[in-house]
Amino acid sequence: MTAPTSRTALRSDVQGLRAVAVLTVIASHAQFAPLAGGFVGVDVFFVISGFLITQLLIREVDRSGKVSILGFYARRARRILPAATVVLVATAVASVLWLGPVYAPGALNDTIWAGFFAINLHLGMAETDYFSRDLPPSPVQHYWSLAVEEQFYLVWPLVVLAVVMLVARKHRRSQGARRRDTAAELRALLLVLLVLSGASLWWSIAQTGANPTASYFSPFTRAWELGLGALGAIWLAQRERSPSAKEWPRLAVELLAAAGLAAIVWACFTFNEATPFPSWRAAVPGLGSAAILVAGGLGAVRSVTDRLLSVRPMTLTGDWSYSLYLWHWPLLVIPVQYLGRELTAFERVAIVALTFALAWLTFRLVETPFRRAQWLAPSWRGVVVYPATVLLLLGVWWSSTSYLTHRPDGDGEVVALGSDWQQRYGTTDRAQAMVKAAVGAAEEDRDLPAALRPELSDLVDSYADVGRCDYADDSVRELCPRGDVESERSIVLVGDSHARHWIHAFDAIGRKYGYRTYYFVRVQCSASLVTPDLTDSDRPNTGCVEFRDWAADQIAEIQPELLVMSTSAPVGGLRGPDGEHLTANADTRPVVKQGYVEALKRLKTRAERTVFLLDIPRVITDPATCLGSARATLSSCLLETQENHGRMQSDQRKAAREAGVESAETQQWFCVDGRCPTVVGDLVAYRDSSHMTNEYARHLAGSLAEELGLTEDSPADGAAGSAD
User: Fold this and answer.
1) Are strands 482-483 and 516-521 parallel, antiparallel or unpaired?
2) Distance of CA 442 to the CA centre of its chain
């Protein structure tokens, strides 16, 4: 979103519209019901920005016959960078202090992306990664809209300059006169903008269905919204220059402005997180905003909507809107991550009040002084603001990262089993005994070990690499044998991300016992033979269905000695037997269970032996939140299993029996009586609430081989990972 230029240079209704935009965004993010669709305030900002920037460019062309690109970028830098940098630095410091070594590094990296105005591209790439979607939201995620606008500003002035120059050259050739044809320039701009905006809208509709998360952040799917504002500015400029233009009737202006405001309000109350967006739906708040902006420029008579938007509280909020937008998001998300729980209503109200206080200070002490600073008046000095802010952010990133790197994880000792561990813990399984020992140490409230594996700063990246066989990409259809690739025997692992986190264990088993290993795993694609929804919409995930069919054909050709299925249930909705859309757990649970049965029956005909490896226990909170706390101990990080986990495991056991295959337990390697230690020995067991780390998977290789009945086989060269 663009920072206001100055109070006198802007129409008061525009400032009021800024207030509507920022208040709806804050209300939505602060979970003030029923404004679930308040995120459309960002779309309102896009239209305002396109409108105002195009007006400024047209006026500059009118004055000088050209566009000063350097001057334009210098003005943008002075108005946008100071406040944005202050909030980024404050967010980086807060992340180090309160997010700890697990999540702070990601937040620090995001501040650099935000500083380069490329955070939207980074989020688009990261959010397509299932394991990144598991992470808490970035405290600078909201900078994506600034990045989209800055990318628009990078291109649009160049387009305006090119069009003006081409029209002027054509006019001189045809008329032989130096006087510019401003009407022709505006017509050419209008035509170019219609083509570019139309292409962007088409791409937005196409990508929202195919790649909804990435399309949300893309400048190519959002450019048409800024184009709407630019179209309004060009149309008004054409009207001002037309001698035949007639004043609109008062009623028409009133209806246009009221309809625009009604469209924004309607979107705020009817859209929600499940609404496919932006697609064509962004046109509702977009056209509404454009209608208000155009109505306000049609004549001397002010509409009722104009007057409502121009009241003092609205214009004042509009003045602060840029800083309000910058501050509100980190103030809302950092406390949630620090506390490990949702905020109460009182806490959210207090944070919104703090947002207004900080926005007022930032507007008075940062935005206004930099905007008015005479020493920055020369264009080259204004442009220098950008590299200066980047250097500052890099310095903050380096110092903060260094601090986190040298921060100790804990000062306790690794829990030792002792020589009598089999008698003491009643098991011959060393991995199970270590879990029992970890629970005992937690009951004694012992400290975390001085060093953990993986290190906390690496925890979020501890998920198995599938190399070139990332089947989440529908274009990838090849095999990637691992383990003992020279062996004639093979093991196949099938499932979703809850199979993928076993890869390091099966790699070690394959190397030790002489098996080629294949991993037909696709994140967000449960092995249950149901049709799940796409992650970010209610559309069917046909890619998942096609992948499972392809995988079944490949397994039939491989004919593995052992096939292991490990999976979770679909996390969203799915299609029932008759094609009906199911979302409630009571409706989906029996369908998913039957899907397990059908999947196992199909797969067992393609392998000598089939085993359903039951899903690992899910814990109620994110382990990283606990481990990242300065007060973390083994006791405070002893977590409980989720309420529905027992029912899910029961369904999987029953499905295995009905399909006539074996099932293998996993509970004993993670929990004792529903209590699950986050740290076992010096190993962090959980990457998040439902996935284990690579390091823990390697640790379980020996126990897993025993559970699957593979320990009688003759070992090949190499060694499987075993209990440490």
Assistant:
1) antiparallel
2) 34
In angstroms, how far is CA 239 from the centroid of its own chain? 42
pLDDT in tens, 34-82: 888 999 999 999 999 999 999 999 999 888 888 888 889 988 988 999 9
Backbone φ and ψ for 613, nearest 5 degrees, come out as: -85, 110
Query: Cα–Cα distance between 383 and 653 in angstroms, integer?
Result: 65
Q: Which residues in 10-68 belong to E strands, given as ranges?
A: none
How many residues are recorded in the chain?
724
pTM, to two decimals: 0.83
Please count the other Cβ atoms lying within 10 Å of the Cβ belonging to residue 561: 18
Question: Mind listing the pLDDT tens digit for each residue in 568-583?
Answer: 998 888 888 777 888 7
d(C-alpha 190, C-alpha 234), whole Å: 7
Q: Give the tokens for residue 88.
A: 């980024």
CA separation (Å) from 524 to 134, 138, 498, 549, 649? 12, 22, 9, 16, 18
Going by C-alpha positions, the residue among 398, 375, 498 that lies closest to residue 105 is 398
Using alpha carbons, list the distances in angstroms from residue 111 to 84, 361, 394: 10, 22, 9
Half-sphere exposure of 216 (CA within 13 A, CB side): 22
Distance CA 89, CA 397 (A): 9
Q: Distance between CA 75 and CA 73 in Å, rounded?
A: 5
The three-state secondary structure class of 413 is: coil
Q: What is the pLDDT of residues 503-560, one digit of tens each?
A: 999 999 999 999 999 999 999 899 999 998 877 667 788 899 999 999 999 999 999 9
Burial class (CB in 10 A: 0-12, 13-18, 19+), 204: buried
Q: What are phi and psi of 563, to 5 degrees?
A: -120, 125
Residues 6+ apart with CB under 8 A from 705: 509, 512, 513, 711, 720
- In whole angstroms, what is the distance from residue 203 CA to residue 181 CA? 33
**Cα 587 from Cα 530, distance rounded (Å):** 13
Residues 6+ apart with CB under 8 A from 504: 464, 694, 697, 698, 701, 721
Count of beta carbons in the 10 Å neighbourhood of residue 39: 22
Question: Which domains, and CATH codes, for the chain?
Answer: 12-402 (no CATH), 421-707 (3.40.50.1110)
Distances (CA, A) of 88 to 85, 124, 321, 525, 605: 5, 20, 17, 37, 57
CA atoms within 13 A on the CB side of 601: 11
Cα-to-chain-centroid distance, residue 153: 24
